[in-house]
Amino acid sequence: MGWLNRVREQVRSGITAPSAIRDVRVLLDDMRLVKDEAEIALMRRAADISAAA
């Protein structure tokens, strides 16, 4: 876990570590449901490429 090693290094250098670690998967799952126009265009292009293969 690279992030954990970075936090440990910061603590050793005097930076306060986070007091809690939160599970943000629910928020990320909800965010994945919303697509902007650029994402939709990329998905359509990927579908076109796959269909042509």
Automatic annotation (TrEMBL):
Taxonomic path: unclassified sequences, metagenomes, ecological metagenomes
Official protein name in the record: Uncharacterized protein
